[in-house]
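For reproducibility, we list the full input for the adenosine-5'-triphosphate complex.
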Amino acid sequence: MQRQSDTDEQKLRALEIPFHERRVLVLAPLGRDGCLICRLLERAQIVCGISTPDRLADEISNGAGTAIIAEESLNVRSVERLASVLRQQPSWSDLPLILLTAAGRVTSATLQRNLLREPLGNVLLLERPVRPETLLSSVQNALRARFRQYQVRDYVRQQAQAEEALRRTEKLAVAGRLTASIAHEINNPLEAVTNIVWLLQNNPELPVEARDYLRMAQQELDRVTHITKQTLSFYREPSQSAQINVGELLNGVLGVFSARLQNKDVRLQRDIDTTCKVPGRPGEIRQIFANLISNSVDAVPQHGAMRIRCAPGHSRGRRGVRILFGDNGPGIPYAIRSKIFEAFFSTKGAVGTGLGLWVVKDLVAKHGGSVQVRSRNGSTPSWTVFSVFLPADFEASQPRSTP
Ligand SMILES: Nc1ncnc2c1ncn2[C@@H]1O[C@H](COP(=O)(O)OP(=O)(O)OP(=O)(O)O)[C@@H](O)[C@H]1O
Ligand SMILES: [Mg+2]
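The corresponding predicted structure, in tokenized form, follows.
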């Protein structure tokens, strides 16, 4: 009796095909045919299992290398079910079937059986009595063809993954170039405005109130200048790292949002400890807070509520500060939660660029911290809470030196 060769066995292992994808399903309910076929296959180290007319279609949809079917076990109903499963195969798949037919002359009954099995597609007919060698070599050929199909499937999957990775990288490269050129264009008028504000500030004829406003304008202009310079130099600029009072910085950012909060009549509950300090770059931490608060203000309904909390915290045994940004907006649907930190993911149409949380994630990681989201969507009350942890013992707080 022919045994599956060692090389075949090695190939099979190399392909690492899971059990259910290489098994041979045997449907031969009459007599001892099923048992004998299985014994033959097992001796050749081919995984197999006996099936029944009711279960075969379901078992095939769960995965199979091939199926050996005794023709007399098929009827119109079982062929229809089988054909419907086979029609649903993905484009790479064309399951080979081996049909054991009865020998003899062509009669109207055999012609009818031919018509019956037509919908089954990729079928090899073996006339009984079949010699064991013939059956074995037919099964091996069918499996070989099936394994080729799996290779095509894996190749198609890898291609799709590589294309997706490339698409993302290209998107990021385009974004990088675009932001750098925008930053460059903004820089020139910005310098002019900064100079004008400075000249005005030093005008002794201006009332004190006007000078206060100018001082605030100067601070905001400094921030914009810092952001454009950072963008232009791809974070190369040695921005100053210092011990930051997180609570005070957070209160400052909230001040900038006061008009938007008032417009929506948002009830803001602040619970901000102003003693916590962490090492970091103030401009970047301000950006983290501004993006998260901006998202909450976008999400919260008219007369809605927001809660912002800042307190000492721990994460994985490290000391630091935990800042929570909560709102009673519509929440984030579960299906998109894994995507919101990706660049360019936005549900806000033309108003959103989808870069806010991507920047948050990057800057939090730059400070050795972490950011998580919890949300309830679809049932009342809906809410979202973003939680940021910034460690107090972060050492790599030197400026990033990536090109
Ligand atoms: N607090 C929140 N409540 C509900 N959905 C939110 C909240 N924060 C973020 N999201 C969802 O996450 C998506 C991505 O947010 P992200 O800040 O990255 O981009 P964006 O706000 O759409 O655009 P922008 O670049 O202007 O910030 C949002 O479009 C929104 O669907
Ligand atoms: Mg945003």
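The pocket of adenosine-5'-triphosphate (ligand 1) is lined by residues 291, 295-296, 299, 327, 329, 332, 340, 345-348, 352-358, 384 (CB under 6 Å). The chain has two domains: 2-161, 241-403. Both points were considered when choosing residues for closer inspection.
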